[in-house]
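Researcher: Going back to the complex we discussed earlier. I've cleaned up the inputs and rechecked each line, so this should be the final set. Can you rerun the prediction on the complete assembly and write out the structure?
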Amino acid sequence: MKRDYLLFILFALLVYAVPTFFKGGYLLNVLVFMGINTMLAVALNLLLGFAGQISLGHASFFGLGAYCSGILTATYGFNPWLTMVIAAAGVGLLAFGLGFPILKLKGHYLAMATLGFGIIVYIVLNETVALTGGPSGLSGIPNLKIGTLLFDGDLKNYYLIWTFALVTMLLSINLAHSRIGRALRAIHDSEVASRVMGVNARLLKVQIFSLSAVISAVAGGLYAHTMSFISPASFGFNFSVELVTMVVIGGLGSIFGSFLGAALLTILPELLRVVQDYDIVVYGLLLIVMTMYMPKGLAGGVAACWRLLRSKKVKAVENAQG
Amino acid sequence: MLRVEGVTQIFGGLTALEDVSFRVGKGAITGVIGPNGAGKTTLFNIITGLYTQTGGKVFLEEADISGFPPERLAPRGLVRTFQNIEMFHQMTVLENVLVGLHSRSRSGILSCLLKLPRQLAEERRMREEAHTWLEFCGIADLGGVEAGALPFGKCRLVEIARAMAVNPRILLMDEPAAGLNSRETADLELLIRKIRDMGVTVVLVEHDMELVMDICDAIVVLNLGKKLAEGTPRQIQENPDVIKAYLGEG
Ligand SMILES: Nc1ncnc2c1ncn2[C@@H]1O[C@H](COP(=O)(O)OP(=O)(O)OP(=O)(O)O)[C@@H](O)[C@H]1O
Ligand SMILES: [Mg+2]
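Model: Rerun complete. Updated structure for the full complex:
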């Protein structure tokens, strides 16, 4: 438990130090996306990694957050901070209402239901042209502002988004080490036993589904206000699957794993540009190999390497002494 | 303490329980025995709210708890262990017991997210109490071990520690001695007595007749879903119907 917080402090320092090395440009822009993806992966991990409930529609909560905040500011001129709160609350309520019927389902059926929801949202975003601008997108979304500080450049956005991402990670670590986090993992391992111990599994699943949706909606708001332009293509089925991949590749139930998964899946497409047309093939192969050889994800892999290194070091010391 | 009244359970065409009634005395150890498939586990599943019975009622200290889901029974002090161990295998032994304290702790999602002072204090208290239950069951040294890595015998003990953490008034155990060696069974017997001496009512499903006859104050015999007999261990041992049912089974 202490180790998680220590790791978090180191990680946070690293995150804030990074821009002193890259003052701007393309890479910083990629890192901004990485921050948003980290938020989303951590949010989904609460549901998928902790409670063990699949969602193939999480991109839609991200999208609804983005569009809600985007439309209210660009079209109706609201304050962006206010609209982000409205978006988060609205999406949270929607997820809460949706969660009760949907989370009664298990496994493949839950996957299908959340998939269906994602597709409905995608269609609505495309078809309600008057409101959303349809497939050609919504533009003119204002940047966020604190006093006179306008978040318009990559550097400012980097600090803005990573602050949100770090807060998300910290709160999730807190949750993981609490009675609620344990109850969620208990549901994952044996729902029946958890209920016998007094865990209201049904309600808790809905609550965590909503919390996950709220965080995703906040990420959506941040995305809309940093990009200034959004279109439905960013919030479709592909992205939902990509989010699940981040969580699984990173390591189910590991907060830092979610960061690793998000980082990898943000950077990989950029790196694979060198192999041009074959990028999808390489991408797919990499994911298959990784799931085969790192069943506990990147987080599990890193932990195993660490243990290996330590035992080698101990042996080396012993040899030197003996 | 616990009263089962005319409970019937039908699965499709199969009648697993038929009009079963009995009472469990407060502070006693009551055995429920019967050949394989007699309906013992089904009875437990009904009492603990995992199944909704086809007919009949269950009362806990005169309150009708028929159809209550398990999560409403834990706060009322009714809890159980499982025949096919239901461990939280990816969690440590201590965390397993901490889940047992769930219904007696209050912190909501928000205070857990923000680590509010009240939550921290509660967490400290919970950990202390969880440790005492590990000690109580003689597994204090296993707190940090991942439950999935434990040998079978220890799993049974973790399940009991976890159930005791709920602070039960009545504890239902489904074959706690199954798969244990004779030394472990002897320790288990002591543990069950210790639990009874704390004032917890115990209902015990068990095939180990020596254990049952040794510690039970009363016994209910089920056969093919029907109550066959009821009485003290001596009465049951001498009951010709019971002898026939067991011999007939082979
Ligand atoms: N969920 C279910 N669906 C259908 N049939 C069931 C179900 N649960 C139990 N049964 C059937 O009910 C009967 C009683 O089963 P139960 O598990 O209660 O027996 P038991 O007395 O606990 O046996 P054992 O000593 O082997 O544990 C069996 O014939 C079993 O196949
Ligand atoms: Mg059974």
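Model: Worth noting: The first strand of chain B starts at residue 2 and ends at 11.
Researcher: Good, that matches what I expected from the previous run.
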